Fold these 3 entries.
Entry 1:
Amino acid sequence: MADTTVDATKRLNVKKQTLDDAYAVPANFLEIDVINPITHGVGKKRYTDYEVRMRTNLPVFKVKESSVRRRYSDFEWLRNELERDIPSLPGKAWKRQMPFRGDDGIFEEDFIEDRRKGLEQFVNKIAGHPLAQNEKCLHMFLQEPVIDKNYVPGKIRNA
């Protein structure tokens, strides 16, 4: 019986990592950046959108690199489509949208940067979940220039 215990607790022979291994492309990766916020329009027609840039080698994604522009409302749409125990979005900032403020409210650079960071964290948490990676809405959000809000929800099937 002692021999079984020794075998069960014996250290594995681990292969030493080479420099080639350390700097090789990771086996699986999914990188999503929310960058380059741009504010458009004037007055009540103003809004800010963000570039959502994705790189991956995961087989579930047919497109390995994409870049799309998304507004806050698009992130809300994605969250509502998934409706699971997913992270919350950064706040909508209703007080910053009040008229007669002495500043630019939701169009101030600091606010836009804080929101950008929150949106990046949100989309990375969702996209990093293996079940969410198969959702059509996530693929559309990350890869299609225009979100088809009349799409049929479902899973992506690998060909």
Note: Residues 43 and 142 are 29 Å apart (CA to CA).
Entry 2:
Amino acid sequence: MSEEPAAVIRLLRSQKPKLIEILSADADFVLQHADARALLSPHSYQQVKHCRTPGEKVTDLLDHIIQRSPESAQGLLDLLKEPDLQKTFPMLYFVKDLDVHTHSPEKDVTSVKRKEVFKELEVIPAKKICSNGSSLVTEKQLMSVARSIGRSWREIGRQVLNISSVKLEQIEEDHSLHVERVFAMLRCWRKLQRDKATAAHLHSLLSQGDEALLPEDIDFLINSD
């Protein structure tokens, strides 16, 4: 059921920074789904496709769709709620609970995520999130790992993942929920490692040293069963 057109546009614009952060993890995936739904013109598709960075690509994609028409904006909101998008981008769970009619642009979605993120995480069975170890680590796997890292996350970030203290401080400022901070840290590691960010590599790092995680918490990264 379609929402009020102007309200949908206001809602998407208010959530734009968060959506850019989340969707930049796989900008091409989002672009192809948006194109399949004809949410942007062929000319706009080519413009977005040739953006140099994922962040720029997602930013332009959102701008083109939101500015095109209220129908396109509604189509984007519906797309973000689709199972394929929700599965690929776990942090999009908050979109399902956004209320177009009651949402205020000034109201942060943190309260919604605080209620929903833990509930949604419970339905992601870690042992079923499998990889052959040589594949690049997925968003779902990172989220499952994030659940297992406690208050020593900063030490793990600095000593194990080689993430700078400045970056960790920025992550802490940007996210109020613990699991979101850890998830953001792991995504940062994946971005830095690029094609080396495999599930097996992450498992190896988190299995060594004083900050090693328990095998039962991370073995799903290398087990296919």
Note: The chain has a mean pLDDT of 80.
Entry 3:
Amino acid sequence: MGFLFRQTVPRAPSIVRWSTPSPSWFKLNTDGSFLGKPGLAGAAGIIRDSDGHVHLAYQVALGTGTSVIAELTAIWRGLELALAHNLAPLVVEVDAMALLVSDIQHIFREANGAADHLVKEAASLQLTKVLRHDDITGVLRGILYLDRQGVPHLRWGR
């Protein structure tokens, strides 16, 4: 029986701090937590303005869950509250590296036809499913083909 000992070299601490958002912006900081795998989970967040003043904070008990569900719920609830309280424009900060999305952009519904088609079908037929490439047929396949070809869509003024 052999033992392997690894010498750990202490890493130097780094200084980190919360920073305010740009003037006239708000910042949502979220966190999710769970105790065990899976275990009791919770989600929370706080929205502050460019002077650092708190506009609202929230906590959500989730019962049994996982860290990913807790982190995503914290973001979802924060966005929902920011919208309800007109706290925009909004920067979102999370400490879960696995959830980071490098770029979220707005797209008009007319140019988001594939996702729009899927959600309308899901809502009207009460579907929950995952589609792989070979499962995509009919109208959805046509929408995706047109997207790949760069076909433009008309958007009427609203």
Note: The mean pLDDT is 85.
